[in-house]
Please model this.
Amino acid sequence: MKDVPRNMRLTGMFLFRSALIEASRGEIPMCVVHTAHAAEILLKARIAQEHPLLIFSKLPKSDSSKDPLTLMNLLESGRTLTYEELPDQLWATTGIKIERLNQYREFGRLRNQIIHLSMTNTKELDLITIRYSFELLDPLLESFWGRSVIDFIRNDPRPDYSDSYSLGLFAGSINEVYPIDERLRSLLGEDAINSWEELQYKEKEWEEEEKRWESLTNEEKQEYYNEHCVDAPISSETEEILDADANWKNFLESF
Model:
């Protein structure tokens, strides 16, 4: 039972991270569903820090044997609070208020439309998700635990996350739909911002190179290929990968 809050924190952060990447890549409408689901888990995690039973709206009934309540009982017969009920419970148990309550509720309505009807009358769901993430959910989580969802992107050594961060792809995709304010700049770091700016410059170079390539004849293309496209030796990066994995493990253990 004592592990419930931490397990929920990690699960919620992993889901939030994936949902934010989905939104940054324009993968809709599931980015709304996954972000709202992550918010539900993470708010419950903060409430469960006070006591795990506080996240339940219905508890198992005691039986004639009068055995102690177990986690298995809760998994099988308990019912947790809904997304809509969580702000009041968060305030009652921790004193923390969700300042952008209308935004929170509207995002929940969008999630429900998608889940129950597989459609919504709202456009730009990726933009709405990113705004919800950085205006409401992520600052709230940082106030809970001192960590941002960006920390879970930056510290993960797997290419889907580390490359997206280090190459500036994540910063660039976010900046397209949401201004990188002082808080985000601090979280992303100057290296990621600089990488994004360098990437923009390189993209212009690539466009020019592509135009030049298309202007070549087939014979010129074959000649270029024969001259430049040779097999290169593969360098070993095992030690760096092991170090990155160890750092990621330490990061998770500290949360």
Observations:
- Residues 22 and 207 are 26 Å apart (CA to CA).
- The chain has a mean pLDDT of 85.
- The beta strands are 56-58, 79-80.
